[in-house]
Amino acid sequence: MEVLLFAIVLLVSLFLIPLGLPGTWIMVGSAIGYDAIVGGDPIGWVTIVGTAVLAVIAEIFEFSLSARYTKKYGGSRRAGWGAIIGGIVGAIVGVPVPIIGSVIGAFVGSFIGALVAEYTRRESTAGTATRVATGALIGRVVAAAMKTGIGVVIAAWLVAAAAM
Questions:
Q1: Which of 18, 56, 64, 114 sits CB 3.0–4.6 Å from 79 for a disulfide?
Q2: Backbone φ, ψ for residue 145 (5° rounding)
Q3: Torsions phi, psi of 14, nearest 5?
Q4: Residues with pLDDT less than 70, the chain
Q5: Residue-wise over 18-55: b if at least 16 C-beta within 10 A, else e?
Q6: What is the torsional sign of CA 34, 25, 52, 54?
């Protein structure tokens, strides 16, 4: 019964990831809580540390892929930072909109942050800035997909460890 409830918590946490919420960290925290509630060490610290490392990797991907795609589409370092900062600010601003506000805010924020940062460069044109901002948006989408994929791996690993 405990494993089923744990799996439900992990599934809900998995659905939080694309919404820009800390689903991977909720998974790691719920694993620690599961160990404490069930007693003993059913999941094990190696699994908990391993999933925490995966959560850190997912966070790094989430913040860096937008900047990486910005550069791939011809953007400057400034535009990369604009995409990162814009994505964070957009996610925060979008929070009041129920369910998908933070996702849309992060996507729009990455686009606008890269657009403004690239457009303020002297040698940049509107077309170049738009192309770079589109790269930042694509990077943000890829980052959300990768983080969700890593969340699936974390959830599967934790359920397998709890069921043993």
A1: 114
A2: -65, -45
A3: -65, -40
A4: none
A5: bbbbebbbbbbbbbeebbeeeeeebbeeebbebbbebb
A6: positive
